[in-house]
Prior knowledge:
Blueprint: H1 7-14, E1 22-26, H2 33-47, E2 52-57, H3 69-76, E3 86-91, H4 99-108, E4 113-118, H5 121-132, E5 136-140, H6 146-152, H7 159-168, H8 174-177, H9 182-205, H10 210-222, H11 230-239, H12 246-258, E6 262-269, E7 274-284, H13 287-294, H14 302-316, E8 320-326, E9 329-337, E10 340-346, H15 353-364, E11 372-376, E12 390-393, H16 394-398, H17 403-406
Parallel strand pairs: 1-4, 1-5, 2-3, 3-4, 6-8, 10-11, 11-12
Antiparallel strand pairs: 6-7, 8-9, 9-10
Helix pairs in contact: 3-4, 7-13, 10-13, 11-12
Amino acid sequence: MKIIARQQYIEHIQKFIGKGMIIALTGQRRVGKSYIIRQLVTEIEAGNPDANIIYINKEKTKYADIRNAEDLSRYLDGKLKEGADNYLLIDEVQDINGFENVLRSLNADEECQIVVTGSNAKMLSSELSTYLGGRYIEIHILSLSYREFLTFHNLNDSDDSLLKYLGFGGLPHLYRLGLENEDMVWEYIQNIYNTIVLKDVVQREGLRNVTLFENLMSYVSDNAGQLVSATSLSKYLKSQRVELTPLSAINYLKAASNAYIINKVSRYDIHGKRLLETNDKYYFEDLGLRNMLAGQNRTGDIEKVIENAVYLHLKNLGYKISVGTLPNGEIDFVVEKGGTSVYIQVAYLIADDKTMEREFGNLLKIQDNYPKYVISMNPMSRPQNYEGIKHLTLRQFLMSDSLYTALSFNLK
């Protein structure tokens, strides 16, 4: 079976090979972590034919007997070769109870280079952080970027291709189904969601009220990019005649975040230069999953999908992301990398002066010299800048490998 390389992740992983650190690849189920591991094996074998590679994939029945730390230790006994370049690769390591004890011991003795994958953030926030603090690096794997989507589906960059990406999202396996088979695509996405809910929410988090969880996910999908608070959740639950405290509802959202279905983005007070602790926003890790939960109908919510797509690309570019707040307004994204901040507003179309004033006006209120951008779907190859604020089309932005190269990208 053909494996399409996701080279940016391989290059990132290789930077930490041999540095004495455990490498943990995290991300939603079926975003391609296993294929990246297999690609990594190929790269290791090509560069070091004598390497001793031990690969455990917990999703395969042949490894079903490795249930806990003792089982893992017994399995590894005799497989690590003294004096050899040993590599231990474990897929879905969270399915091995107490795995962190074995990894800590192996890492302390520097017996092998360890690379693991996991589909639950709780694994890192508790198990790995507690036992391996400072000795592991997390590399988060996202669903396909727009540029990867074009490669996987053998498409040229165009407005039609962009609409396909915004609709179907970036789960890698879709290239084998074919986007023309829409019923199969949505059935596959539904099955992935069901698997995530069963394995990473019900089994791992212990949340039993699946109907309530799915209702909350529908609510979040319908309010992607909108402020979500305990109060708004309480009002929604009352409208659904559900008896659940707002705090319990927030815990359900935490479970969804732990399973990488959604990401929470905190608000940032631009004038006060501080993060705020209430009224967060949530964005989905895959657009197709979000659209499936929202009913696959984007007629009335295209701006939400565009904003989610911008969020995902900013995350892909390695930015730390917050939602900006002003005394009388909001900035969709305040992003930071390398000590430099950037402010971004997202709009569907800049169709008239009123929209122009709203989208550019909030950015003009910010009294500093950091770069400011408006991103929209305006069908023009070079949108006009406005009072020093740069205007990009969504395609320009999604095709770029940085905000700065996006300025020089010409649409065809």
